[in-house]
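Bug #77: duplicate submission created two jobs. Keeping one. Sequence:
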Amino acid sequence: MIHETAQIDQGAQIGMDTKIWHFCHVRETARIGAGCVLGQNVYVDTDVVIGDNVRIQNNVSLFRGVVIEDDVFLGPSCTFTNVSRPRSTYPTPTSSYEQTLVRRGASIGANATIICGVTVGPWALVGAGAVVTRDVPAHVLVLGVPARFAGLVCRCGRSISFSCGSQSSATCECGLSFQLRDGRVTPS
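Kept job's structure:
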């Protein structure tokens, strides 16, 4: 389903059962997976890659260099950049755009800003209004400006807590179990 006000440039690839709403613009070499939803006024630049089952809320712009894996949620008006030192009088060559990667299952809150060159790990959660300036590990919740560690989250989004020590386990209310080893969370 593509709304009549959306502009899809020739050559853009859009997967089955993807919905693109009012006033969206998808550029010519963008690739969008199956089962996605792009809310009103979403911009998808050239060479952007979006996986399957991604939810992009209103007013999100994905610029060249952004890669979104499967099952990601992007909250309203969250922002991505692709140049570290932008200057109007010294335009950045296309080859210098930095890649930003949002891994499977991650969620970015409303009005969060993701500075280019970072990776948001699988199932990580970026709080609303946070400014992410460095990589976010898997299952980590970050909040604030700049974004800082605020806890650990399950795939379902609930907080998970571990007993003291560098190696321990925890089970979420939803039933998933996790191991904490040397500061890294992995499903068990």
